[in-house]
Amino acid sequence: MELTPDDVRDVLRVLDSSGLAELHLELADLTVTVRREGSTGWTAEQQVLRAPRVEQAAAPATDTETAAPAAEVGEGLVAVHPPLLGTFYRAPQPGAPPFVDVGDVVDTETVVGIVETMKMMTPVHAGVRGTVVEFRIGNGEFADADAVLLVVEPAGEGGAGG
C-alpha cells in the first residue's frame, strides 16, 4: 500500500479534529509517528524504509523490450531516490552547510538531505556506503518519488575506499 499526499492530508485532518495525542503508523516501507506537543502543535518522526537501487548502464533495447528510464546512472553506481515526493533540501535550514557534498564519503545511515512534503521534513539516507559523485536535483527543487537526487559510487567490498 502506498500513501498519496491526499491520504496523508486526510490522516492529519482526522488527527487534528480528534483527541488523540499520538499516532504510530507502520506500512511495509514507511514508519510514521506523529505526536501532539501541547500548544506548539504536532511533531513528527518518520523513517522511510526505501533501499537505494543499483542502476546499470542501459543495454540496447530489443524489439520486445522498452528502453531504460532517462534517469539512469552509470554502471555500478547507486541512485539515491527520495522517500516521498516533495521539495528536496541539501541543508537542514537556510544558510546552513549542506549535509553532504560531492566527494564526501557516506554510509547507509548518513543523512544526505531532507524532503519536505506537506510541511513534514523527511530525512533522506544514503542507503549505501560510498562516495557522493553527483547531485541530480538542486537545493529547493521539487523531486518526484522516482527522481534521482544524487549518485553514489559504492565502496568496494574488499576494504578499499573506506
Automatic annotation (TrEMBL):
Annotated Gene3D superfamilies: 2.40.50.100
Family matches, as SUPFAM superfamilies: Single hybrid motif (SSF51230)
Pfam families xref list: Biotin_lipoyl (PF00364)
Signal peptide: none
Domain of life: Bacteria
Pathway: Lipid metabolism; fatty acid biosynthesis
InterPro entries linked to this entry: AcCoA_biotinCC, Biotin_lipoyl, Single_hybrid_motif
Keyword hit for DNA-binding: no
One BP term from GO: fatty acid biosynthetic process
Family annotation (CDD domains): biotinyl_domain
Any single Gene Ontology cellular-component annotation: acetyl-CoA carboxylase complex
Keywords recorded for this protein, A-Z: Biotin, Fatty acid biosynthesis, Fatty acid metabolism, Lipid biosynthesis, Lipid metabolism
Stored PROSITE patterns: BIOTINYL_LIPOYL
GO molecular function: acetyl-CoA carboxylase activity
Annotated ranges, domain Lipoyl-binding: 77-153
Keyword Electron transport in record: no
Role noted for this protein: This protein is a component of the acetyl coenzyme A carboxylase complex; first, biotin carboxylase catalyzes the carboxylation of the carrier protein and then the transcarboxylase transfers the carboxyl group to form malonyl-CoA.
Protein name listed in UniProt: Biotin carboxyl carrier protein of acetyl-CoA carboxylase
Source organism per UniProt: Blastococcus saxobsidens
Source lineage: Bacteria, Bacillati, Actinomycetota, Actinomycetes, Geodermatophilales
